[in-house]
Amino acid sequence: MTRADTATKRAADVSAMFDEVSPRYDLINDVLTLGNDRLWRIATTRAVAPRKGMRILDLAAGTGTSSAALAAEGAEVVAADFSPGMLAQGRKRHAGNPLLEFVEADATALPFEDDSFDAATISYGLRNVSDPRRALAEMHRVVKPGGRVVIAEFSTPPSALVRAPYAFYGRHLLPRIAGLINRDAAEAYRYLNESIEAWPAQQELASWLREAGFERVGYRNLTFGIVALHRGFVGRPLAPAEATPAAEKPAAAKKPAAAKQPAAPKKPAAPKQPAAAKKPAAAKQPAAAKQPAAKKPAAAKTPAPKQPASRPPASAQESGAEQ
Ligand SMILES: C[S@@+](CC[C@H](N)C(=O)[O-])C[C@H]1O[C@@H](n2cnc3c(N)ncnc32)[C@H](O)[C@@H]1O
C-alpha cells in the first residue's frame, strides 16, 4: 500500500494512494463519518448554490460524489482530479450523466482558461495538495469575477471537549475501522489522520483565501468544527466611472491593483497567462486607486453587461465564522 508522506505530499504518492483506495472509497467515508459526510455534502452543495446554466469546477473531485450533487441541480460540472483510479471509479459510477465531465488535472496547474467557471469547489482535497496556496491561486484564476469558491475540509473543533475524543478516534479507531473494510487502506487512513492534525485551523485557512485574492471570506463550522466550510468571492473589476478619481476612493473597497504584489507567490503562473496580472489579491492592497484599469482590461475580460457569476447569499458573513 502506498502511503504518502504528510510533510511532502509528493504528488505521485498521493495519487497512487488514492488509486488504491478508490474502489471502496465512498463506502469507507460513510462508515468512518457515521454518515455525516452526506450532511456535509448537502451543506457544501447549498454553499456553492448551483443553478442550471452555471459551469462549476469540482476540484480533487475523486469519484465525483460531490460533483454529482452539483450536477443534480442542473449545473454543468467539471470533476477534476489527478488520480486516474478515482477518476475511473467516477466515470463508471456516473456514466451517462451529460452534465458531468471527468478531467485528469493537477490542482496546482489547472489546464483551464482564466475566468472559465462560475464557481469552484473542493471537498476534502485541498489538505492533500502539496501546495494548497497555489491551488487556491489557481481556483481564483479560473473563476469569473463575482464567482465564488467553497472549500469543505476537516478542521479544528473549537471545543476541547470535542477535540480530545476526536483525536483519539482519528489516531486509534479510524485506521482500524478502515482496515476492516479494505485491508490495504489502514495506512492510507493513518495518513488521513496525520494530514488532518497538521492542517491549519479555520482562521488560518481563511487568511490563505484572502492572500489568494478572495474577498468576503468567511467560514462555517459543521459538526462541532470537525469540518469547516470556507467560502470567498472573486472581486469584480471597477466600473470605469468608479475608477477615475483615484485619490478620492476608500482604498480597501475596490478591486485593487496587482502591481504592488510579488507576482509569483500570490498568483503562480498559470498555463495560459500569469494570473497575477489579471485578478489581484484584494485584501492586501491598500493602493487600489492607483492603477485599476491597467490590471483587468474591461473589454477583454469583463465587459459591462457581463452576467454576474453568482450572487452572494444575503446572509453571508464576512471575515469570520458563521455559526
Ligand atoms: C479525500 S479525496 C476527496 C474526493 C472528493 N472530493 C470527495 O469529496 O469525496 C481527495 C482527492 O484529492 C485528490 N488530489 C490530491 N491532490 C491533488 C492534486 N494536486 N490535484 C488534483 N487532485 C488531487 C486525490 O486524488 C483524491 O481523489
UniProtKB/TrEMBL annotation:
Pathway: Quinol/quinone metabolism; menaquinone biosynthesis; menaquinol from 1,4-dihydroxy-2-naphthoate: step 2/2. Residues 245-323 are annotated as: Disordered. S-adenosyl-L-methionine binds at T63, D81, D106, A107, S123. Gene3D superfamilies: Vaccinia Virus protein VP39 (3.40.50.150). GO terms for molecular function: demethylmenaquinone methyltransferase activity. Transmembrane segments: none annotated. Its EC number is 2.1.1.163. One of its GO terms (biological process) is methylation. Keywords: Menaquinone biosynthesis, Methyltransferase, S-adenosyl-L-methionine, Transferase. It comes from the Bacteria. It catalyses: a 2-demethylmenaquinol + S-adenosyl-L-methionine = a menaquinol + S-adenosyl-L-homocysteine + H(+). Residues 245-309 have a biased composition (Low complexity). Pfam families: Ubie_methyltran. Methyltransferase required for the conversion of demethylmenaquinol (DMKH2) to menaquinol (MKH2). Belongs to the class I-like SAM-binding methyltransferase superfamily. MenG/UbiE family. This is Demethylmenaquinone methyltransferase. The lineage of its organism: Bacteria, Bacillati, Actinomycetota, Actinomycetes, Micrococcales. The gene is menG.
